Amino acid sequence: MRHHNEILLLVTSIATLCTIPAVTSQSSGCYFTAMNLYGPPSVQQGQKFDVQTLFSVTCTGAGFYTVRADLADARTGQILSTSRTTYSILGPFAAVITSSAVAPRTTGWWSLQMNLYVLSLSGVPAAPQSQQIFGLAIIPTQSNQTSHGNWTSH
Questions:
Q1: What is the tens place of the pLDDT at every residue in 57-97?
Q2: 120 membership: H or E segment, kind and range
Q3: How many domains is the chain built from?
Q4: Residues 74, 131: contact at Cβ < 8 Å?
């Protein structure tokens, strides 16, 4: 009977070893340290605009990570654009991602939300999501009116 117990112990040990996740990016300790948004204070109806997201992230485990930025309508949750880029990260890291969208045809205040994610190359989250809500004034379309200046959100 001793022989069967040793085999059972060996099989149990192998099964335990096989259940260890292969992806270690979640335990790498990635986290956002800053997120700043830059864009126009107002846009005309139907006008394309860009939002630049300056972010800082720190990862304690070296590796390649994808940073994804989802620009969404804050009221409906509809994603207007997704931008992603891949970086080799170890320690503190800062970069800019540009997201583009088109303003609605209705005038008024438009609440938007930027969601940032750090993902391993296999798509597993490597850091908690970071998000920021901001807004734009949607103004009537006029043939010779242009938007001047940019807003900054910290």
A1: 888 878 888 899 999 999 999 999 999 988 887 778 889 99
A2: strand 108-120
A3: 1
A4: no
